[in-house]
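Researcher: Here's a chain I'd like modeled. Treat it as a single chain, no partners, no ligands.
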Amino acid sequence: MNILQDQFDEATYAFSQGDYDTAAKGFEAILLVDNNHFDARMSYSMTLCRLGELERAIEEGHKVERMRPDDQMVHTNLSLFYVKIGNKEAAEHHGLQSKIASWKQPLTNSTSDVSDQNELQMTKPKVESFKLPGKFPDMPWRKSQNKDKTNGGENG
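Model: Modeled as a single isolated chain. C-alpha cells:
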C-alpha cells in the first residue's frame, strides 16, 4: 500500500482519538514529502484548530483554499476558524463562499449519464399491447344474478 496513505490513515486515527499532537506530526510528515497533498493539508489545518493554534490553522486553511477555491469544506473550515478568533466578517464571508460552493457541486447524475440512460430506454423492446377478453370466466364463488332470479322464490 502507499506509504503516504498509511501515514495519512495513522494521523487521521490519532485525530479521531483526540491525540492532536500525534496527528499534527503525522500530517506535517506527509506535507514534507508532498506539499500539495490536499487531504493532509486540510486535516492539518483542522488539527491546528483543535490544538488552539488558530492563526496557523487559518494560514493552512488559506493554502488549502488556493488548492481548491471552490471546495465547500475548505470554506466551512475557514468560517469556523474565523468564528473562533472572533472575526465575524471573515467568518460570514467564508460561510457564504461555502454555500455558493455547495451550489456549484455537480449533480449526482452527470449529463452524459442521463443521455446514456435515455439511450438505454430507447433501445428496450416495446411492450406488446393486449386486448382484455370480452367475457371473464365464471367465478364459482360468486352467485350468478340469473340463478338468483330463477330460484327467486326459495329465499324470500
